[in-house]
Every structure is written in structure tokens, then in C-alpha cells.
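A reminder from the course coordinator: this example appears on the midterm review sheet, so study it carefully.

Given structure:
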């Protein structure tokens, strides 16, 4: 037993946790920003019903649940719900669908379970946590990227001289380098008028997917393989990250207000 413990400690020492990191979602900070912003746009009725289902846990707190369960094989069916792979020349409507499911089918299933009168409160809470996360993922451009490079995961770059990839840069590298808590980022979101918020909340989930897919095209052009991305890259692109987090939060609130 001592030998096993020693071996684990040795591995952790030789290979820091960044070496094992995967980059297939907004990082925890990003998802919590989305949850926090959504909470500020909930109706009183929706907020009361959600608090009851989540046992008073906040949207920000449960927003990372869908990533946390990835380590449990019982939940493998949900893995493909985090993304959509679409060629540039297609829309979601015309693209080939993943038979195992994708962001759109996952969101639709979550909504169906939450709406169903036959669903238990535990099931509703489980799928609500997934829904909160998936609406966030929908607005990360590389979650609606290309199949051949796994949404930018295979586009290797450096981030301030450290190995990374284009997907991870957009998931978490820029957010963590900015060094603000999720509360601070949410509190410093752009001030929008009621009409601007209403406009952002228009459309369907598929409309939002196609919109994010268009943005993904720009992200793919923003860096070259093996490029060392630094302060200039954040200067040019972090405003888009912040905007996408805010839009995701505003739209998540719309989905939840409609549900509850």
C-alpha cells in the first residue's frame, strides 16, 4: 500500500495537474459567471422554484456539475451533449447529426424531463444542473467547431510559453490569466438596456448554435498552430469571451424563466 501511495505522489510531482487537464468546456470560472449572470435575470417565480429543486444551491455552484460527473462511467451517455461538430459551410439544420446526441438534443432532453409531470424532483434537479451547464457550453465558440480537430483541441499552441491548445485558450486560459473571480467578472459585465437584453433572448437554441458557429469561424482564424499566444491575443479576444459569457447567462435566464 505504501508503495502505491508513493508512486501516486511521485507521478503528481513529476507531472503537475496541468498535464492531465482536459479542455472540453468553459472552465469552472466561466461556467460560474454564466450561472451568476443568469441568476440576476431570473423572475421571482423561477428563482423560487429553482431554489427549491436545487435545495438552495446557486446556479453558479451547480454550473460545473455536468463536467464533474464525467469521471463516473455511469454518465458516459452525456459526454457528447457538451458539443456539436459542424463543417463551416453548414448550419445545424443541414449538418450531419451525431447519433449519440449533441448540445441541441441534450438541451431538448433536459427541458423535456424538467417539464414532465411524471419526473421526480431528483430527476428534475439532475437535468436542471445539466441544462445550466449546456447553455453555457453552447456559447463557447469551440464547442461548435470542427470534427477533424475536435473543436480546436488538436490545434496546439502555447499560452505565455506553456503548452496549450486553441480550445483550452478559449475555455479557461484567457479567463484565468485575467485573474478575476466569477463574482467579479459577473459584476463587471457590460451594462445593457432592457431592449438589448430582450433582443439577445430572441431566437431558438438552434439559432444560438448557428450564431456561435459563425463566431467559431473567426476564432479559427485568430491563431496558427504552434503560435505563442500572449497579451496581444487577450487584448484582441477577451472582450469576446466576456460577451459570450454574458449572453449565455442572459439566455439561460430566458430558458429557465420559460420553464418555471
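Designed residues:
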Amino acid at each position: 500500500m505504501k508503495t502505491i501511495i508513493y508512486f501516486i505522489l511521485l507521478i503528481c510531482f513529476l507531472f503537475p495537474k496541468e498535464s492531465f487537464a482536459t479542455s472540453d468546456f468553459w472552465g469552472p470560472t466561466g461556467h460560474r459567471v454564466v450561472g451568476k449572470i443568469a441568476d440576476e435575470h431570473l423572475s421571482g417565480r423561477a428563482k423560487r422554484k429553482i431554489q427549491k429543486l436545487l435545495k438552495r444551491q446557486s446556479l453558479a455552484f451547480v454550473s460545473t456539475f455536468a463536467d464533474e460527473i464525467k469521471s463516473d462511467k455511469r454518465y458516459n451517455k452525456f459526454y457528447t451533449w457538451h458539443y456539436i461538430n459542424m463543417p463551416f459551410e453548414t448550419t445545424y439544420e443541414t449538418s450531419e447529426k451525431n447519433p449519440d446526441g449533441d448540445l441541441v438534443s441534450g438541451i431538448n432532453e433536459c427541458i423535456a424531463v424538467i417539464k414532465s409531470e411524471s419526473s421526480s424532483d431528483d430527476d428534475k434537479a439532475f437535468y436542471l444542473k445539466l441544462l445550466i451547464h449546456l447553455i453555457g457550453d453552447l456559447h463557447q465558440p469551440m464547442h461548435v467547431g470542427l470534427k477533424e480537430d475536435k473543436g480546436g483541441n488538436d490545434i496546439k499552441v502555447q499560452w505565455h510559453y506553456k503548452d496549450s491548445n486553441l480550445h483550452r485558450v478559449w475555455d479557461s486560459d484567457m479567463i484565468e490569466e485575467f485573474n478575476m473571480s466569477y463574482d467579479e467578472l459577473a459584476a463587471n459585465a457590460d451594462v445593457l438596456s432592457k431592449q438589448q437584453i430582450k433582443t439577445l433572448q430572441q431566437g431558438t437554441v438552434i439559432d444560438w448554435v448557428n450564431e456561435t458557429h459563425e463566431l467559431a469561424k473567426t476564432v479559427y482564424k485568430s491563431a496558427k498552430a504552434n503560435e505563442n499566444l500572449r497579451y496581444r491575443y487577450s487584448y484582441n479576444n477577451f472582450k469576446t469571451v466576456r460577451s459570450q459569457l454574458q449572453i449565455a447567462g442572459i439566455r439561460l435566464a430566458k430558458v429557465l424563466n420559460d420553464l418555471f
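The chain has one domain: 21-259. Residues 1-24 have pLDDT under 50 and may be disordered.
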